[in-house]
Design goal:
The protein has 319 residues and is mainly alpha-helical. The chain has helices at residues 12-23, 29-47, 55-78, 80-86, 99-121, 126-142, 148-153, 155-163, 165-177, 185-205, 220-224, 226-252, 257-279, 283-312; strands at 53-54, 316-317.
Length: 319
Amino acid sequence: MHTLALTNASPFSSRFLAWLKERFPFANALLFFILYLATAAVARAGQTGSIDLSLQDLLSCLVTWSFFLLLRVLDEHKDYQLDCQNHPQRVLQSGLINLGHLKLAGVLAVAAQLLWSLWLDRGIGQVTLAWVALLVWTGLMAKEFFIPEWLTRHLTWYAVSHMLVMPLIVWWLANLALPGCSLTPQLQVMMALAFVSGFCFEITRKTKGPEEERDSIESYSRIFGTRGSALVVLLLVSAMTLNQLWLIQLLLGQLPIWALLVLLAFYALSVRQLLSFIRVPSAALRGKNEACVALTMLAGYAVLIAVLVIEHGLSTYLI
């Protein structure tokens, strides 16, 4: 149903789905599922030499999705007043749903994460403790570390502080996949990859075309300049690709030629797009920047899973 056709009399499910479509599209679930599966593959390959999947992994994928839903809900609360000013047409800002509805969704997401962590631990163990550490950092993010004005003036530090959640996410996901797992060198590099990838996408997302800039919306292009911000993204994409290659080399002791070619092809795609944006910055090309960087990030995780499946084989079972 189109958002314009919705009213407060429309079924709540339709209004909530409209919010999801607008602010947390189901297509994003692919990235969250791949992140979990890549982390599970790295954790298991580094310790057990097996990357077999079970029904538990499907449930862990859904719980992973619920955590990123929680992040979106917290952001919606944090940015509500500013979004009312800048985006009054959105589902939440137009009153089709309210913050109370989102708060309930957040509570349900937290409950699912806690119960699943406790079940995997058969009590309180490393899975649950990893989740608690993650939730504490998430809470600090929601409060902007109690220095919101300073972070607003220092957007780069804002991004760094918020992207530090990614290694904590990877540690929790690794424990979902392999409760009580060790912090192996491979897993540490996976954490670094998640941090760099998240940082890269965050800078890309908040690099605007010249016609999109507003005084009320912070962006990295206002800090570094439009072209300067794109150059920062270019450096981060390079770091992300090098990290992808390093992790595969660390896991296998070699770098398959096909994996190298695939990752370099996606890297070249991002570089070409970013250079086009640098030459002629625009909102249309900015959107393509996001798509190309996201594809390069997804390709890295997908290739990582593929090389481990080829190396170790893959079996599936129900429990």
